[in-house]
Amino acid sequence: MSEVPPIHPLDRPIWSALTTRQRDLAEGGAEARRFPIAIAPFADMIDMSANSFAALGALLSGPDIAVLFTPDPVPVPPEFKVLLAETGEQMIGTPAEFSLPSVEIVTLGAADVPAMMALTEMTKPGPFSARTHELGTFLGIRVGGELVAMTGERMKPGNYNEMTAVCVHPDHRGRGYAQALLSAVGRQIVARGEIPFLHVFTSNVSAIALYRRQGMEIRRRLHITALQKQGEGKVRE
């Protein structure tokens, strides 16, 4: 009987992260795990069995959401309702060198969370919570004291490191800020001997084009599914 080849860590990036380098953050056990909700809504299961879905449901309370990144569509049981079912492109590679000599890139921390939350609320790059910055280094650009662009690190499956929250204030786009931040974050990741990657909705063709210009390539398409238990209240803002 032939052996089943091991799954690539990027095929199930959330499960891989929560069972390797970010396992100390994981809530749950052998069948289902998630990040703390104040950090990120990401969760995954060892498989799509009824027992695994039951374990996932046990991790959710009230309006909690579980966002899964999976190779195949999720067969959602009736105990859950689907809030989002889309596809995303997983892109990999080291962003090209790009610098803006007149622009200072700064490291962001806990004191910057209100500004980071405001920027992500305006630009909608994906889930960003009060403790998301704890997942890795976040870099930003300020203009006149206002945070107008940022990018950082999120999931760390195996030897890979996800770049995330690539966002620029609408009034400051077209100045190369996203390229400069991607380059800076990517260099930090590579300097640690890790491989940069990111996720982007398939429908976000302009962002995909930007990342391609930066030298990144699509590795594969993933299914992005947001679930909530049936009968629960309003989604947490």
What does the model show?
The strands form two sheets. Strands 4-11-5-10-9-8-7-6 form an eight-stranded mixed β-sheet. Strands 1-2-3 form a three-stranded antiparallel β-sheet. Strand 9, helix 4 and strand 10 form a beta-alpha-beta unit. With 237 residues, the chain is of the alpha+beta class. The protein has five helices and eleven strands. It is 22% helix and 31% strand. The longest helix has 15 residues.
Secondary structure: elements and pairs:
Blueprint: H1 13-19, E1 27-28, E2 32-34, E3 43-45, H2 50-59, E4 66-70, E5 80-92, E6 105-108, H3 113-123, E7 138-143, E8 146-153, E9 160-168, H4 177-191, E10 195-201, H5 205-213, E11 217-229
Parallel strand pairs: 9-10
Antiparallel strand pairs: 1-2, 2-3, 4-11, 5-10, 5-11, 6-7, 7-8, 8-9
Task: List its traits.
single chain; 22% helix; alpha+beta; 237 residues; eight-stranded mixed sheet
Total count of strands: 11
Question: Uncertain runs with pLDDT below 50, 5 residues or more?
Answer: none
**Spatial sequence of strands, sheet with the most strands:** 4-11-5-10-9-8-7-6
| Spatial gap, N to C terminus | 50 Å
Percentage of residues in helical conformation: 10-25%
Total helix count? 5
- Helix/strand-derived category reads alpha+beta
Taken as a percent bin, the fraction of beta residues is 25-35%
Q: Can you give the mean pLDDT?
A: 94
- Write the element-wise H/E pattern from the N-terminal end onward: HEEEHEEEHEEEHEHE
User: For the CA atoms, what is the radius of gyration?
Assistant: 18 Å
Shape: globular
The biggest beta sheet reads: 8 strands, mixed
